Amino acid sequence: MFGKAERLVAWRYLRPTRGEGFISFVAAFALIGIALGVGTLIVVLAVMNGFRAELLGRILGFNGHATVVAGPEGLSDWPRLLERLQTAPGVVQAMPYVEGQVLVSANGVASGAILRGVRPADLERRGIFRDNVPAGSLRELERSGNAMIGSRMAQRMGLTLGSSISLISPKGAVTAFGTVPRIKTFRVAAIFEVGMYNYDNGFVFVPLADAQAYFQLGDRVNAIEILTGDAEAIDRFVPELLARIGGAGRLVTWQQLNANFFSALEVERNVMFLILTLIILVAAFNIITGLTMLVRSKGRDIAILRTMGATRAAVTRIFILSGATIGVVGTALGFVLGLAFSLNIDAIRRFLENLTGFELWNAEIRFLSQLPAKVETGDVVNVVLMGLLLSLLATIYPAWRAARLDPVEALRNE
User: Fold this and answer.
1) Sequence spans of domains, the chain
2) How far is the C-alpha of 290 from the C-alpha of 303, rounded, in Å?
């Protein structure tokens, strides 16, 4: 597409010469702008994808893909319902549990939490629990009176294995002197850490029988959690699940529970993409400015090339190649920088924290313990193509102006 002579002239025009320092500065500024825009966009999209993937994985790993919930009376015939759900197409696991709000008190510190009564065997089949118990064991929940708490709660309340916690339920027994809260003491037998602050700080797990007795449910449970083979396609399994549930309870999917949260993430991702695209767009305008100035300064050279037989198309290709080179180099540099930062984002964050002494990532505010990043090939390809396309479009007008230059007028003005 580009002849040898055209490549040679285009390359000579890219090199700074005496009297054209400002033009070279504008070209360098455009190259840096494109590199920063492409690199920043890749990093931001990777972090947004990482946020969604981490939050989705932890939320669904902790809470399941769909839940059968009942009223205060609970599910009486839950073993039979559990068997029907486990045999439904697409269902990987179904887990019964009892859940309620309590006040946790220990070492003079008290805070609200969610108490969940479960069967230890069910938790062991969930990777998010099986692989994230740094202290104790899930097997300890087979013993009555034992409890498993999150690492953030243990740290905040000064708890270790063997410590005692008191659980206080506001729904107590009614006496002649008023309502007396139910209080029961449990021993900390395990500590989990799933990496999401809300869960590590606000959940307590106890044996299913203990929770049933604590909330006075008898042999009933108040929810059954369902895991399917594909969380993103949960709507495909809903009709069959509803048919098997009948009137025993109400089915709630993860999309219904977290619709606003994930919609907000998607909107934020799209807005950030549009905002950061403006960086690349500004850099592309700098290419237009630089090439336009180059055309004006090279009017005599263009006239000589035309008189030597160069066609308008050849002149157009020379300046397109000059501008496109800036865009390609800037995009390639941004691609390398963006990938390097994305793949090492958390290590860079820790380095900056150690260097400055400031906490740049507060888990209490941002839900996750680490700064996540997930590089999607499609996003990177789209960003690179956009950088190349904007750079190429920016060269069209200056190249057209150069091709339209009249050699006679150019030489006469010289």
Assistant:
1) 4-57+261-413, 71-248
2) 20
**Residue environment code for 296-319, b if the CB has 16+ CB neighbours within 10 A, otherwise e:** eebbebbbebbeeebeeebbbbbb
* H or E segment to which residue 61 belongs: helix 21-63
- pTM summary value: 0.67
Which of 12-26, 65-79, 89-103, 301-315 has the largest mean confidence? 89-103
Residues 6+ apart with CB under 8 A from 110: 103, 104
283 near 28, Cβ under 8 Å? Answer: no
Residue 91 burial (C-beta neighbours within 10 Å; 0-12, 13-18, 19+): buried
Q: How many residues does the chain have?
A: 414
Mean predicted lDDT score pLDDT of the chain: 82
Phi, psi of 132, rounded to the nearest 5 degrees: -135, 50
pLDDT by residue (tens digit) across 314-323?
A: 777 877 887 7
Q: How far out from the chain centre does Cα 295 lie?
A: 45
Whole-number pLDDT of residue 197: 82
Nearest to 353 by CA among 340, 339, 371: 371
Task: Please give, one letter per residue, the 3-state secondary structure of 206-255.
Answer: EEHHHHHHHCCCCCCECEEEEEECCHHHHHHHHHHHHHHHCCCCEEEEHH
User: Are the C-beta atoms of residues 391 and 53 closer than 8 Å to each other?
Assistant: no
Ranking 302-316, 380-394, 399-413 by mean pLDDT, the lowest is 399-413
Taking alpha carbons only, the member of 23, 31, 20 closest to residue 283 is 31
